[in-house]
Amino acid sequence: MDVLLSSAEGTIARITLNRPEKRNALNSELLHALKQEFARLKTDSSVKVIILEAKGKAFCAGADLAYLREVSEFSAMENLADSQLLQETFHEIYTSPKPVVAKVHGAAIAGGCGLASVCDIVIAAQNNAKFGYSEVKIGFIPAVVMVYLLRKIGDTRTRRLLLSAETISSLEAERLGLVTYCVDDEQLESFTNSIAKTLSDNSASSMTLVKEMMANLQGMSLEAGLRYAASMNAFTRMTDDCKAGIASFLNS
């Protein structure tokens, strides 16, 4: 059975975690598949938006137990290579030129919560979904996701979640900024499709540039950020999408 399913309808691609019997727990096979599929979609000009979802009762319950047993016996170099695979997979998702929408139901714990965290928009089932970074409970640390989480929700909230290892509701995750939209469980599918459709109606090049700027502005000084913003503003005006959009607006 394929650990990952991929399909497309119009300009919206759908990537589905497909290890329901393991609550879609992460292992090297699934991480490789995710990395390769996001890399493939990056160059697919027909796709404008990507939905990341999961089969079964959970979005992703963290690392597979068998995988954890393997990791506990790895050499230093094997552990480094495995950590780099996780880092590269998360980075491939985070830097995707297309908006990535996570549709979360059930548990999104540890690596699964990290997987949702690197998506642009997270939509969660209000009653069913739960989030948490449980790594410190077993002597591990959420090192890779910490880099993204600090950017996403800031120092104070990141410290709370990573040090406490608490499991929080989707409503609390929304309050903290980890979740973008918290919706009734029955509306999760339709609401996600609606958001994806809204995004797909936008300019692909503009969304790509917005994502690029959002990533690059982090850490820039005010002056450097403004210089960068002015140059990107000027560059955007020269894109085909901008020229067509202005022409359409003026002729309407």
Descriptive overview:
This protein has 252 residues and is of the alpha/beta class. The protein folds into 2 domains: 4-200, 2-enoyl-CoA Hydratase, Chain A, domain 1 (Alpha-Beta Complex); 204-251. Helices cover 52% and strands 16% of the residues. It is built from 11 helices and 9 strands. Strands 1-2-3-4-6-9 form a 6-stranded mixed sheet, with helices on both faces. The chain has a 3-stranded mixed sheet with strand order 5-7-8. α1 links the parallel β2 and β3. α1 (28-42) packs parallel to α3 (76-94), α4 (111-117) packs parallel to α5 and α9 (204-217) packs antiparallel against α10 (222-236). The longest helix has 19 residues, at 76-94. The termini are far apart. The model has no long low-confidence stretch (mean pLDDT 94).
Briefly characterize the structure.
The chain is 52% helix and 16% strand. It has helices at 28-42, 65-71, 76-94, 111-117, 143-153, 155-164, 170-176, 188-200, 204-217, 222-236, 240-251; strands at residues 4-9, 12-17, 49-54, 100-104, 107-109, 121-125, 130-132, 167-169, 181-183.
